[in-house]
Amino acid sequence: MPSLLVLATTAVPDHLRGALTRWTTEVVPGIFVGSVSARVRDELWKAVTAVVGDGAAVLVHPAPTEQGYTIRTAGTRRRVPIDFDGLTLMRMTAPPQPPPNAKNTQSPS
Fold first, then answer.
1. Exposed, middle or buried: residue 83 (CB in 10 Å: 0-12, 13-18, 19+)?
2. pLDDT digits 0-9 by tens, 17-38
3. pTM score of the predicted model
4. Predicted confidence band at 94 (pLDDT cuts at 50, 70, 90)?
5. Based on CB atoms within 10 Å of each CB, which residue in 30, 33, 52, 66 is the most buried?
């Protein structure tokens, strides 16, 4: 039985975006929405994780959980899903910091 999925991508190859539009609709750049079977959804996710590279992707789809959905991620993201007593919450990680020996290259005004 088909179910709704939402797939958000950032900095992924154009050929992946084209492949995703065969099964979903790109409602705004990088956001794909579709109604597909679990098998198609899993195959799409395999394709995404295989080529995400330096980009990132988040898949949200229905699941038999308390919240009614599950979240899958691929690539490097600041928001990381964590399980908290059966609920999926998003943890924010710190942004990358410059090395401590990096000098300020701006001249004083």
1. exposed
2. 999 999 999 999 999 999 999 9
3. 0.82
4. confident
5. 52
